[in-house]
C-alpha cells in the first residue's frame, strides 16, 4: 500500500512547499560598504542555513525513530494507521526580502513577502536536501495563513474525504478480496472488535 501522504497527494496541497513556484538556491544579504551596496553571503551558511538544516534533519530522523518505536511497542501496522508529519523550516528576516531570478539570463529583481529556498548538504555529518521558506517579518501572519494553516486545513480535508481508505469493511465491499488476505483479515477482525467495544 502506498504511503498515505503519497496516496492522498498531501505534499501537493495548496500552500505546500512542494508546489511548482520559484525556488532560490542562494541566500544573500545586502550590506553597505563605503557607500556601496554589496550582495554578501558571509556567515549566512554557517550561522543560518547549516544550523537550520541540522535541526530539520534531526527532527525528521527523530520523528521516524519515534514512529518506528511506537509501531513496534504497540504492534501498529504502518499501512493500517498512517502517520503524517509536517515540518516547516523557516527563516524570518526583519528586513525587506527580494527575489532575483536569473533563469532567463537577465536578472529579474522583485520584492517578495516570502520565498522558497533549496539547499543541498553533503558533508560527513550532514547529508540532506533542505527546503525552507524565507519570510519577511512584516508579512509573518499572512504567511502563516497562506502557507502553514492552508496546508494543515487541506490535509485535514483530504483525510476526512478519504477516511474510507482506512476502513477495511469499505475496502472489502468496494474493492474485493486483497492479495495479502491473512494480514487484511487480522486488520478487519480487529477493526470489527474495536467497533463492537465502542458501540
Describe what is shown at a glance.
Helices cover 42% and strands 24% of the residues. With 199 residues, the chain is α/β, with parallel strands linked by helices.
List the keywords.
single chain, 199 residues, alpha/beta, four-stranded mixed β-sheet, 5 helices, 8 strands
User: How would a crystallographer describe the biggest sheet?
Assistant: 4 strands, mixed
Count of extended strands: 8
List the total number of helices. 5
Query: How big a fraction of the residues is strand?
Result: 15-25%
Principal-axes geometry comes out as: elongated
Q: Would you tell me the structural class of the helices and strands? A: alpha/beta
Average pLDDT, all residues: 83
Q: In order across it, which strands form the biggest sheet?
A: 1-7-8-4
Query: What pattern of helices and strands is seen along the backbone?
Result: HEEEHEEEEEHHH
* Helix amount: 40-55%
How far apart are the termini? 29 Å
Description:
The protein contains 5 helices and 8 strands. The protein has a domain at 17-139. Helices cover 42% and strands 24% of the residues. The protein has a 4-stranded mixed β-sheet. The protein has a two-stranded antiparallel sheet with strand order 2-3. It has helices spanning 4-7, 44-74, 140-161, 168-175, 181-198, and strands at 23-24, 29-33, 36-40, 90-93, 97-101, 108-112, 114-123, 126-136. The protein is an alpha/beta fold and 199 residues long. A hairpin with a 2-residue loop joins strand 2 and strand 3.
Amino acid at each position: 500500500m502506498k504511503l498515505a501522504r503519497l496516496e492522498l497527494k498531501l505534499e501537493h496541497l495548496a500552500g505546500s512547499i512542494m508546489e511548482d513556484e520559484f525556488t532560490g538556491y542562494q541566500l544573500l544579504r545586502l550590506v553597505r560598504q563605503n557607500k556601496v551596496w554589496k550582495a554578501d553571503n558571509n556567515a549566512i551558511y554557517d550561522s543560518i542555513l547549516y544550523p537550520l538544516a541540522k535541526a530539520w534533519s534531526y527532527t525528521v530522523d527523530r520523528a521516524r525513530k519515534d514512529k518506528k518505536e511506537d509501531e513496534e511497542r504497540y504492534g501498529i501496522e504502518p499501512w493500517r494507521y498512517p502517520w503524517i508529519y509536517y515540518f516547516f523550516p523557516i527563516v524570518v528576516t526583519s528586513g525587506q526580502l527580494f527575489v532575483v531570478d536569473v533563469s532567463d539570463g537577465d536578472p529579474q529583481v522583485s520584492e517578495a513577502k516570502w520565498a522558497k529556498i533549496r539547499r543541498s548538504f553533503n558533508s560527513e555529518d550532514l547529508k540532506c536536501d533542505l527546503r525552507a521558506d524565507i519570510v519577511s517579518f512584516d508579512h509573518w501572519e499572512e504567511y502563516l495563513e497562506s502557507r502553514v494553516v492552508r496546508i494543515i486545513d487541506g490535509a485535514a480535508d483530504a483525510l476526512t474525504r478519504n477516511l474510507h481508505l482506512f476502513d477495511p469493511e469499505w475496502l472489502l465491499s468496494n474493492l474485493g478480496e486483497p492479495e495479502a488476505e491473512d494480514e487484511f483479515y487480522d486488520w478487519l477482525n480487529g477493526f470489527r472488535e474495536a467497533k463492537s467495544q465502542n458501540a
